[in-house]
Amino acid sequence: MLLVIKNGDDKYLSTGIAPVPSKSPELYLCARLSPKRIQTAAGHVHFRVTSQTNVPHGAKKGDQGKPLRGFFSAKEEFSDARDSTDRLENPVITSSVHAPPMAGPMWSQRLPVLLLLLCGALLDGSALPASSSYEFTAFRMQQFNMGQHKHEDDSVTASLCSGVQRMTVCVQGAEDDCLSVFRVQRMTGAEDDRLSVFRVQRMTVSLCSGCRGAAVVAEARSPDDPALTRKCVVMRASDFTAGNVREARRQNAAAILVLLPQNMYNVTPEDIQTFSQTEAELLQKETLTPVYVTQEDEQLLFMVSEIQRTAASRTSSIFFRVFRSFVTATAFQILVSNTTPIKALTDTTVVALEGVLRGSGEDPPTIVVTAHFDSYGLAPWRSFGADSNGSGVALLLELIRLFHKLYSSPRTTPQFNLMFALTGGGKYNFLGTKRWIEENLDHAESSLLHDSAAFVLCLDTLGTGDQLFAHVSKPPRPDTPMGSFLDVLNEVISSRFPSLTLSLVHKKINLVESSVSWEHERLSLRRVPAFTLSRLDDPKSQSRGSILDTLAHMDLRKLKRNGVIIAEALGRFMFNLSHTGSPKDVQLFTGHMDLQESRLSSLMTALSSVPRAAQLLEQDPAQALLLDSLEQEFRHFLQHVQRYSFRMDRREPEITFFDQMKQQVVMYRVKPAAFDLFLGGCIAVYLGLVYSAVQNAGWLYCRLKAAVKTKSQ
User: pTM (2 decimals)?
Assistant: First the structure.
């Protein structure tokens, strides 16, 4: 049973978890709860009883507006207490309790109740009893290993110089990774000499990232508290900074619990940037400190206020701190019981979708538009990826709908094939794109990507911003299809949106490193012309992977603007309209062909309501349903739709995820050990007084009798 006390201004006062008796519930409510201030009968004290089984005496559905027993003017709501959102949004019963006049015997019966309330207010007690507990769901920081091959050297010939003699070296034991024996023949003689040399090592480096720990049994503390050793540090979104996290790890904190706000619209851009930077720093390395993420609610916010008050009282006098520790201080114990060891998930599946709109003519060239659909963040179950890369997926789906209308009529079908692809594993070195390319270039007998690809356009993070960046691995020549399309793209932007700028960003691919920064680099490695269009100029931007990347900070108007730019540029390029007028005068996608902001909003809502982390593909039914919906969208508008499911090699997986990403956390409210000592001392003094009174009952009786006799005389 969850009890919430609110004042007349609908502000939170206190909460409690306790069973409510079936009889005299108003007596229980008044006696059990202790609000911070008590109002008169003319005022209002609102209380919410959340339960569907234990309801106050006489309450039933349909009693809205009818008077119930009680002496406060109150608002009573009965709802399911299993979920905080349902508790606030789905009331079951709403009734009003009007204050009857307090007179006669009723006042004498309720006087003890008022005295109890006054005592509770003076002690500033909480509605949550010391022995109660509160259970909630938290999401563990992700953990993964990325396998990378380093220092691969398979050369079979070399030249050695020893003084003035030149020797030819040939590999004889090339299969030995540690030691190879070479046959050396001097150029000046016929004799053969043997010597042993060591080849450059070949190894697989596994990059471990994330959190390895899961079990937590620790007391909750505020990040402002000076003593954090073996404590669970509770941080709100504004407290989750790199400095606080480093300090908690330096003091060997037992765990870190991050509370996300319920309303993301209230989070400032500065807090989002700080949070994202801390997120990226945590995910770069492996840590033993368990990190959990959950959404704040009234109980957790009350815990935060209490531990902040405790941390602030450490600066007060020693007498006040000792007294508060003995009598009024309350500790919160955080428990994550985890008896099952964390297991590796080596059979991860990466999904890719592709579909085609066939152009007119024989063997027309193909333009490919791709986007990766997965999300990334501190906790997989809280990674919704609205901007990165839900915006790219939404634009790709809207482009499919628009160009389907053009290709549905032979009169408006351009002489280009248009292929669309959605790939998974984009946040993990674009593994889905890599496998999709291998499937089209190496395994398929014939594919449009292999036979006639003009260029590939990759969409990434386009949900807001006033700048666009075209990322390339090699600057295209003007006479190439990709160079011509970039010119058309720049022409559309300068003509229709002069306040927007398009910049070309050239970044060479480092062949020594096996990781790539953008999706087009996977294609450039296979010599397929490609570039990425994004609002970000830096591939290491924290905006590409944060659990605060939600729909609350998206700008649908700018998303539609970017979609119009891409659609108009593709249409003008395929129909060769560069010399027929400016893009402002000649527009292809207007009227019934215009991009629909309502559809973009619906797509973004659907995409950002499901965590699309790669490791949840086979664990979350909602994500499997989302993939099925994307496939149905492809089949509705495109031809030759294929769905690829790529499984990692069990022996040498390219990426390894780990389970137990969702845990049940129990918060216990307990008194410190000093309180037990204080309580024991009080009981001992009380028992001593009672024992002394019993032992000296005769002496006390004689003294009292003598005093009464003297007074009567």
Answer: 0.72
- Terminus-to-terminus CA distance in the chain, angstroms? 62
> Where would I find the beta strands (DSSP E) of 489-559?
501-506, 530-534
Domain CATH code at residue 389: 3.40.630.10
Same domain (yes/no): 431, 327 = no
The rounded distance, in Å, linking the Cα atoms of 362 and 359 is 9
Distance, in Å, from the CA atom of 453 to the CA atom of 644, rounded to the nearest integer, reads 20
Do 559 and 586 reside in the same domain of the chain? yes
Q: What residue spans of 586-672 are helical by DSSP H?
A: 597-608, 621-637
Whether the CB-CB separation of 67 and 96 falls below 8 Å is answered with yes
SS (H, E, C) 53-121: CCCCCCCCCCCCCCCCCCCCEEEEEECCCCCHHHHHHCCCEEEEECCCCCCCHHHHHHHHHHHHHHHHH
325, 366: one domain? no
Give the separation between CA 177 and CA 83, rounded to whole angstroms: 57
Beta bridge partners of 366: 417, 453
660 belongs to a structural domain: no
Q: Please write the tens of the pLDDT for every residue from 27-39.
A: 333 333 333 333 3
Residue 117 and residue 30 in contact, taking contact as beta carbons nearer than 8 Å:
yes
Tell me how far apart the alpha carbons of residues 231 and 252 are, in angstroms, rounded to a whole number. 8
Domain range spanning residue 61?
2-129
CA distance 513 to 150: 8
Structure tokens at 603: 């797509």
Round to whole Å and give the CA distance between 254 and 218. Answer: 6
Domain shared by 311 and 379, yes or no: no
Q: What is the 3-state secondary structure (H, E, C) of 637-648?
A: HCEEEEEEEEEC
pLDDT in tens, 587-622: 999 888 899 999 999 999 999 999 999 988 777 788
C-alpha dist (Å) from residue 254 to 215, 258, 459, 648, 690: 9, 14, 41, 34, 46
318 in the same domain as 180? no
Please name the residues in contact with 136: beta carbons below 8 A apart, sequence gap of 6 or more: 294, 297, 299, 300, 664, 665, 667
**Would you call 448 helix, strand, or coil by DSSP?**
helix
* Predicted pLDDT of residue 451: 86
Identity of residue 447:
S
280 occurs within a structural domain: yes
Euclidean distance between CA atoms 235 and 217, whole angstroms: 17
Greater confidence (317 vs 640) lies with: 640
- The answer on pLDDT for 306 being more than 50 is yes
For residue 140, being part of any structural domain is answered with no
CA distance linking residue 520 with residue 533, whole number of Å: 10
Q: Tally the domains of the chain.
A: 5
**Tokens coding 212:** 């390895």
**Whether residues 701 and 640 fall in one domain:** no
Let me know: does 129 contact 16? Beta carbons within 8 Å. Answer: yes
420 and 478 belong to one structural domain: yes
* 33 half-sphere exposure, CB direction, 13 A CA radius: 28
Residue 264 lies in a domain: yes
